[in-house]
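Design a sequence for this backbone.
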């Protein structure tokens, strides 16, 4: 009986000592629109218990932020139908931080990632920008998780078309981003713990 009590205490101590799930939301924003989506992604991810979220501009995310992250959300404005140069530079730094050029490197193995973006119009290149980032993440061996629309359909990740009337990021865009953040954090937690839905 005494051994059982000791075993239960040790298991409880080990569970309590488990590090939290860490999500890095890294984004580039020129006009503040991508930043608004990034904050909503952060809020959604932070709503999941036992999850810590770091929100960083891509130029401010450190190698330590990248290495510590169990999950990664990357946001970009669309530039000429593609991701921004700043976001591409960040993805290069992700590769370097996770082992580029090092023998036996596992890169993003065992980590989840997802993407989000903003563009001026509804046909501004959001899909190609997100697919470019997804391709890089897959090459880095991340498992990529998409979003789920308000109608329940899968999507590449949240997006916002910011021109027009009224312009900017709307409530439904922010709702999509929060759902995406929550989903990414929840799936990352399940993935890391080895528990399926």
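Sequence:
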């Amino acid at each position: 009986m005494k051994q059982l009590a000791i075993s239960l205490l040790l298991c409880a101590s080990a569970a309590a000592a488990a590090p939290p799930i860490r999500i890095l939301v890294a984004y580039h924003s020129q006009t503040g629109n991508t930043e608004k989506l990034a904050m909503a992604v952060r809020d959604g991810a932070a709503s999941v218990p036992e999850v810590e979220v770091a929100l960083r501009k891509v130029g401010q995310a450190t190698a330590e932020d990248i290495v510590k992250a169990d999950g990664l959300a990357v946001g970009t404005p669309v530039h000429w139908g593609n991701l921004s140069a700043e976001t591409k530079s960040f993805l290069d730094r992700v590769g370097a931080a996770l082992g580029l050029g090092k023998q036996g490197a596992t890169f993003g193995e065992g980590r989840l990632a997802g993407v989000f973006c903003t563009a001026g119009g509804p046909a501004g290149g959001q899909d190609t920008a997100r697919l470019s980032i997804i391709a890089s993440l897959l090459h880095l061996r991340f498992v990529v998780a998409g979003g789920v629309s308000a109608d329940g359909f899968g999507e590449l990740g949240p997006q916002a078309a910011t021109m027009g009337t009224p312009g900017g990021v709307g409530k439904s865009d922010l709702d999509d981003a929060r759902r995406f953040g929550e989903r990414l954090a929840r799936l990352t937690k399940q993935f890391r713990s080895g528990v399926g839905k």
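Strands lie at 21-27, 51-57, 71-79, 82-83, 112-119, 143-144, 147-148, 154-155, 159-161.
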